[in-house]
């Protein structure tokens, strides 16, 4: 008798999800659970709401919303304030969110976003973080062009002459910025490197206003970098994402167009690691 197939893909599918798992039609969804999640997500964005307000703003009956809230309350996902007579997100929601954050890998989640950024811009995409006053490059997706920037993982670069470095510096409060730059020599790598502290602070203020930074041949002649910050769930800038390429392809006229793609990628990575998404520039 012929034995049934037991390929690796079949085994993985059997363990994780049934045949036709990508079918999102009504027959494969639980309407009551979907409705409960709508209430849960609504409350997460608008905490401290009374039952009547939730039901009115969601267009659901008070009885339905109440049953959902009581069910979620039993799991600790929401809680009721008997004094104010309003509902809030519960502590178990944070516990579950923290579990997600523990499994979140910045580099792993950045790869598809960086690949898309490289394809959109035609230039090399980079990911970096701050480490002991320098930018540490964690990952790179290289362009297919013959002339390209190259920052292999593990490369360190001075923050004041780096697109990612300036994107991260611009998000620091004044005290932290002073501590970071204190005692550091703003070394000149090219004639375009900013070596004056006051001028650097002015540049960082502009970076924060724009939402992106530019390294215009400040580290390497002939190369330009455009970068934007990535924020975690505490709204802290924990990384930067950038594109780098020769000035012949990344000219001043290209900055506005390319910066849009970079900011979009940084926002996508922010959301992917549990951050709050687009934030207003000041």
TrEMBL record:
Sequence ranges assigned to domain HTH iclR-type in this UniProt record: 30-91
Domain IclR-ED: 92-275
Keyword match Metal-binding: no
Any single GO BP term: negative regulation of DNA-templated transcription
Entries under Gene3D superfamilies matching the protein: 3.30.450.40, Winged helix-like DNA-binding domain superfamily/Winged helix DNA-binding domain
SUPFAM superfamilies in UniProt: GAF domain-like (SSF55781), Winged helix' DNA-binding domain (SSF46785)
Family matches, as PROSITE patterns: HTH_ICLR, ICLR_ED
Region described as Disordered: 1-24
A GO MF term: DNA binding
Keywords: DNA-binding, Transcription, Transcription regulation
Domain of life where this protein originates: Bacteria
InterPro entries: GAF-like_dom_sf (IPR029016), HTH_MetabolicPath_Reg (IPR050707), TransRegBhcR (IPR054844), Tscrpt_reg_IclR_C (IPR014757), Tscrpt_reg_IclR_N (IPR005471), WH-like_DNA-bd_sf (IPR036388), WH_DNA-bd_sf (IPR036390)
NCBIfam families on file: TransRegBhcR
Record-given protein name: Helix-turn-helix domain-containing protein
Species this protein is from: Sulfitobacter sediminilitoris
């Amino acid at each position: 008798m012929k034995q049934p197939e037991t390929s690796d893909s079949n085994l993985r599918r059997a363990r994780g999800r049934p045949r036709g798992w990508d079918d999102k039609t009504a027959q494969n969804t639980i309407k009551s659970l979907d409705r409960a999640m709508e209430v849960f997500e609504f409350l997460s964005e608008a905490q401290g709401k009374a039952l009547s307000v939730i039901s009115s703003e969601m267009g659901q009956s008070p009885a339905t919303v109440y049953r959902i809230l009581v069910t979620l309350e039993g799991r600790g996902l929401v809680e009721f304030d008997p004094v104010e007579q309003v509902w809030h997100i519960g502590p178990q929601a944070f516990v579950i969110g923290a579990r997600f954050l523990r499994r979140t890998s910045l580099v792993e989640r950045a790869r598809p976003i960086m690949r898309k950024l490289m394809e959109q811009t035609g230039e090399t995409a980079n990911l970096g973080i701050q480490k002991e006053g320098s930018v540490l490059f964690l990952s790179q997706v290289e362009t297919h062009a013959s002339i390209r920037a190259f920052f292999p993982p593990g490369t360190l670069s001075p923050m004041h002459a780096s697109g990612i470095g300036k994107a991260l510096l611009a998000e620091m409060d004044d005290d932290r910025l002073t501590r970071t730059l204190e005692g550091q020599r703003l070394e000149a790598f090219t004639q375009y490197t900013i070596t004056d502290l006051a001028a650097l602070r002015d540049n960082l203020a502009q970076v924060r206003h724009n939402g992106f930074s530019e390294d215009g041949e400040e580290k390497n002649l002939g190369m330009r970098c455009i970068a934007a910050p990535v924020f975690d769930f505490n709204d802290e800038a924990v990384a930067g994402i950038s594109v780098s390429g020769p000035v012949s392809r990344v000219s001043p006229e290209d900055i506005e167009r390319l910066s849009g793609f970079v900011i979009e990628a940084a926002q996508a990575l922010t959301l992917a690691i549990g951050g709050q998404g687009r934030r207003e520039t000041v």
